[in-house]
């Protein structure tokens, strides 16, 4: 039987995995990468960027980290070397076309019915020499949501960057600079960083290291969030509190039966207690109360919303010494010499404003599709998350998978499971249910994400429910979803990529 022609867009972590598993089943995939190298978001980062996840949970199931990497949280160069070694080991580089920008994908075939149609995708690719159109039976989108399409706040006329006499850039532009140029850009300058997630913290730390107290870095942010100074609250690894089967018994899960639902309700006080345990540890390690930074939301909510990030204890040392200034406010306005923060009378004078305000991942995903109908399926309205069955398949867009768009405790680990599942689908190991059944399953996950993530459900985070999610993938593929030896280990030992080396 003739094998399907598979096109993969993006050669970040998900794209490499998709290519590797397609090759393992005899497919001949083509990978189009817009950059000159593999690695996706890891190609260009702030100098001091490290992996937030423990390396043991952020590794390929059949290609562990080399013994030369002794750090638990490797640096960006170490991670890139690891990804390149993986690509070379599995001979992936020959299947990747670099500096190739996909301008759009267009579906040609019968209208979408309850059964899967058999059309073709036309993939338009542009490089420095030409524009070509490639045919594909199936397209795997591995474009990520934290890259290329910066989210820039909107301002009223006369109060935006246009009136500011200094420079305004997005964090994406800062990360794209080589390290020497980035240092020169902020050296001796008064810098304001807008945002309080991982990239904002990394940039603020770098600016404070360069300029010290002479030109402190001001961080402007909206909401207090729980930050982890370490991953062992009160000496207990966080994975034993949130990433084993027992921890998942404490929450209501999509598609659960009556008994599991009843058990989650009975155990809800324990869920609250574990969250409080972690919160007390964090407040003991970093001076949140001193700086009026204790979040209103629970630690558990921030974790399950995918809003959690690590923070160096040295960050608050720098706040104490004055090389980092913190300003919490719902907004600000630009003026000629700086910004005026809401609620303050005195303007903050500044030379550079760096907007670490995230990315428009949904818009980026929409723009790949030529069809307006398909664009509408991706984003029905601002209040709906991208509808993906098993967080991979858009039910109303045929012959397409989207990998790496929803978040998890270890995006590499989760992307690997998803790629194995998608390739199993392509290889005929199982079939998709009807569109109606897929949309019902998506609705169940929507309910879970709204219950535990609240207004942040659009992030499509499966944090803290990774095992339940992987169980579903395993069952679809015909794998045994219980991977541990013995009931005790099955219930209390954390799960990781090395639990899934093979079916």
UniProtKB/TrEMBL annotation:
Its cofactor is FAD. Belongs to the FMO family. It comes from the Eukaryota. Keywords: FAD, Flavoprotein, Monooxygenase, NADP, Oxidoreductase. This is Flavin-containing monooxygenase. SUPFAM superfamilies: FAD/NAD(P)-binding domain (SSF51905). Its EC number is 1.-.-.-. InterPro entries: FAD/NAD-bd_sf, Flavin_mOase, Flavin_mOase-like, FMO-like. GO terms for molecular function: flavin adenine dinucleotide binding; N,N-dimethylaniline monooxygenase activity; NADP binding. The lineage of its organism: Eukaryota, Viridiplantae, Streptophyta, Embryophyta, Tracheophyta. It is an enzyme of class 1 (oxidoreductase).
């Amino acid at each position: 039987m003739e094998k399907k022609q598979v096109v993969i867009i993006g050669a970040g972590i998900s794209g490499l995995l998709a290519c590797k598993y397609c090759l393992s089943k005899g497919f001949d995939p083509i990978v189009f990468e817009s950059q000159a190298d593999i690695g996706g978001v890891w190609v260009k980062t702030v100098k001091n960027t490290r992996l937030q996840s423990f390396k043991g949970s952020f590794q390929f199931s059949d290609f562990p980290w080399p013994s030369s990497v002794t750090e638990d949280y490797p640096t960006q160069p170490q991670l890139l070397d690891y990804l390149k070694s993986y690509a070379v080991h599995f001979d992936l580089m020959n299947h990747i076309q670099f500096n190739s920008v996909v301008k759009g994908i267009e579906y040609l075939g019968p209208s979408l019915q309850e059964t899967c149609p058999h059309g073709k995708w036309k993939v338009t690719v542009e490089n420095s020499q030409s524009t070509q159109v490639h045919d594909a039976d199936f397209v795997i989108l591995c474009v990520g949501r934290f890259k290329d399409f910066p989210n820039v706040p909107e301002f009223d006329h006369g109060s935006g960057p246009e009136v500011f006499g200094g420079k305004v850039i997005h964090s994406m532009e800062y990360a794209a600079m080589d390290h020497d140029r980035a240092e020169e850009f902020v050296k001796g300058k008064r810098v304001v960083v807008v945002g309080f997630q991982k990239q904002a913290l990394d940039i603020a730390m770098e600016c404070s290291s360069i300029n010290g107290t002479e030109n402190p870095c001001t961080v402007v942010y909206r909401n207090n969030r729980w930050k982890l100074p370490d991953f062992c609250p009160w000496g207990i690894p966080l994975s034993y509190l949130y990433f084993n089967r027992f921890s998942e018994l404490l929450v209501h899960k999509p598609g659960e039966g009556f008994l599991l639902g009843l058990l989650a309700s009975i155990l809800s006080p324990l869920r609250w207690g574990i969250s409080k345990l972690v919160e007390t540890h964090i407040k003991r390690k970093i001076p949140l109360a001193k700086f009026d930074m204790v979040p209103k939301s629970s630690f558990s909510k921030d974790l399950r919303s995918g809003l959690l990030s690590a923070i160096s204890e040295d960050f608050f040392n720098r706040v104490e010494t004055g090389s980092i200034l913190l300003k919490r406010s719902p907004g600000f306005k630009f003026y000629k010499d700086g910004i005026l923060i809401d609620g303050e009378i005195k303007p903050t004078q500044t030379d550079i404003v760096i907007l670490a305000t995230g990315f428009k991942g949904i818009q980026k995903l929409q723009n790949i599709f030529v069809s307006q109908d398909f664009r509408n399926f991706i984003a029905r309205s601002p209040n709906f998350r991208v509808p993906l069955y098993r967080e991979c398949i858009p039910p109303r867009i045929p012959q397409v998978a989207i990998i790496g768009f929803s978040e998890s405790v270890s995006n590499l680990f989760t992307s690997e499971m998803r790629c194995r599942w998608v390739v199993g689908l392509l290889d005929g190991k199982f079939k998709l249910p009807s569109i109606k059944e897929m949309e019902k399953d998506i609705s169940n996950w929507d309910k879970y994400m709204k219950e535990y993530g609240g207004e942040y459900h659009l992030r499509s985070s499966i944090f803290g429910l990774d095992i339940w999610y992987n169980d579903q993938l395993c069952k679809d593929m015909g794998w045994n979803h219980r991977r541990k030896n013995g009931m005790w280990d099955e219930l209390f030992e954390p799960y990781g990529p090395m639990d899934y080396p093979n079916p």
